[in-house]
Amino acid sequence: MSTRRTLLKTSLLAGGVSVLGLGTGIYLHQRANERQFAHTLAQLLENTERAEILGHSLLSDSGAFQDVTITQINDELLRALDLDRQTVIEIEATLLLERMHARVEADFREENIVIVNGWLLSRTEARLCALSALSAN
Question: Disulfide check for 51: which of 35, 45, 112, 113 has CB 3.0–4.6 Å away?
Fold first, then answer.
């Protein structure tokens, strides 16, 4: 059974292979479209299948993210992480994961949470789930 804690990846592949691409950094072409960018960020999730299901619920008519676009969620997530697109392209995967985990912890401390399908998620995790659903379409 998956838990909220296993939703985000807790370990990286050995040998400097990043979660989001090959090599020591994240590979993402600067001119990648919003869907590609969202898909890349969603790869931070351990269980992308579960995340996609939760994401569809968040995006539904009664969900926390109804009527938002993929660009809006990308931008919200970047603001929450205090990053820009260029930094996400260049940052080491381990540093990105550390920043993501720190933001998730801060969300819980600040009670910045969303309940979806019985799961208690930080707003950051919820954004990643929504991106997973949007980028899968």
Answer: 45
CB atoms within 10 A of CB 65: 24
How far apart are alpha carbons 122 and 112 in whole angstroms? 6
Residue 45: left (phi > 0), alpha (psi -120 to 50), or beta? beta
pTM score > 0.85 for this model? no
Instruction: Please provide residue 116's backbone torsions phi and psi, each rounded to the nearest 5 degrees.
Output: -140, 125
Predicted pLDDT of residue 36 = 80
Contacts of 55 (CB under 8 A, 6+ apart): 129, 130, 131, 132, 133, 134
Q: Quick one: how far is CA 25 from the chain centroid? A: 17
